[in-house]
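@channel anyone free to eyeball this complex?
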Amino acid sequence: MTAFRQLVHRDLTIAWKEGGTIGVTLGFYLIVVAMLPLSLGPDLNLLSRIAAGVLWVALLLAALLSLGRMFETDLEDGSLDVLATGPLAMEGVVAAKGLAHWLATGVPLAVLAPVLGLLLNLPVETYGPLVATMLAGTPAISFLGAIGAALTLRTRRGGLLLALLMLPLFVPTLIFGIAAVSASGTEPGAFTSPFLILAAISLAAVALAPFAAAAALRFQLR
Amino acid sequence: MQTLTQRLANPTRFMALSATLLPWLSVIAGLLIAVGLYMAFAAPPDYQQGHSAKIMYVHVPSAWLAMFGYLHVAGSSFGYLVFRHPLADVSAKTAAPIGALFTLLCLVTGSLWGKPMWGAFWAWDPRLTSVLILFFLYLGLIALRSSIEDESLAASLTAVLAVVGIVILPIIRFSVDWNSIHQQPSVSRLGSPAIHASLLAPLLVMAVGMSVLFIALHLKAMRNEVLRRRVKALRLAEVQAAGGLMQQPAE
Amino acid sequence: MDLGPYAGFILAAYAIVALALSAFVVWLVFDGRRQQRLIDELEARGVRRRSIRKTDGG
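replying in thread with the prediction:
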């Protein structure tokens, strides 16, 4: 357990000190969200209808930016080899990095969504459900993203390939995330079932993705 | 002494077996498709859609083969990961482009069917959406494999991706279906109308014929891939022999 | 035979499928011949494959 915590702590410290990645990610988030009204026109009604969807898609794109680097820096400086032979199983390594990524990227993006929602005239009553769905859905993004990151490590055009690989994997999270937010506006109970499915998908991703990503990493390190 | 797996995985035996099977499969596929086509065009017009329902006879088998193709890739990949069958990788590698082709044909014919049926070339109904995402999965497999130079690493990583994909696929289908039920209750009924028997028979014949065609295409592609790898090995041996005394391990 | 107002779509669909599959078959045949020719050339030059082809590492 200690090794796991140490790895999470180390990754978070790097993310914090480096600042660059989270800054770029948030910046990208802001740009995508700001560009939409510029391209669609200032019709507030239209914007408020699509706001939740835009924020979710922007979140996915921003997350995609940071996913490619999940294992890259460790590979470059050799720490991936050290981690592979260390006390923590490869699956644990992936889980730790996935958790760190979620804390460093997913959570901030989710929490900032309402702020950006102001730009899109997001209806006030959807603020809560939106953040809730994003917090519930971003673990899936980080952990499924780990699979993509492990597969595309060291490949040329890795970023482009990563986006292609992640799109199908993100679809269920996106669909249920949006569905939950939309449902929250209708009858009171409608939010629950898509939200629970969303959470279940994230849990499944957290539980299973490390195995796939670890297998990929082992092949990469041979 | 060879295990059963090693004996089955023998490329030479595969080449011999496939050489015998291929002509038969090709003829059977050709006949079935020819008969199917005749039956398709002899069929009466559908009471709702007129003759444009005939597109179904190429669209539906393409859809089935798109799915079947992916099962093929995933199964072969699983076999490669577990048993390290060299032919399993050949099977997975060659099935992907064929599956992708049928997926593309499904999308194109679906689009051409959609225009008469719904008035639009595309609609985000669950089936078309799932097929589109399946197409992305195929593209991902092909792109991943082509971006890795080391053949063995490419085989392993593509296999992992294929297995991940087959697990994700039902979830994607579920989410897309769920979405359409809960989000758009006003969408016109895009479901397949009840098919009359006289319209069903050509469909079955075409489906079986095209499936046999898939198998024939796959076997032929596998043969080509085996040959391709042999060429590579021969070239490598030639280079090493020319290199003379320095024995280098095969990379 | 009269295929109705959407005859163009029907024929286009069938034509595309026929074309794509035929093109693929042709490519497979040519590719196979090309590989076989390469093998024949290499073997004619006296290159011999090692009798058991070792798969490397993985």
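from a first look: Residues 1-43 of chain C form one domain.
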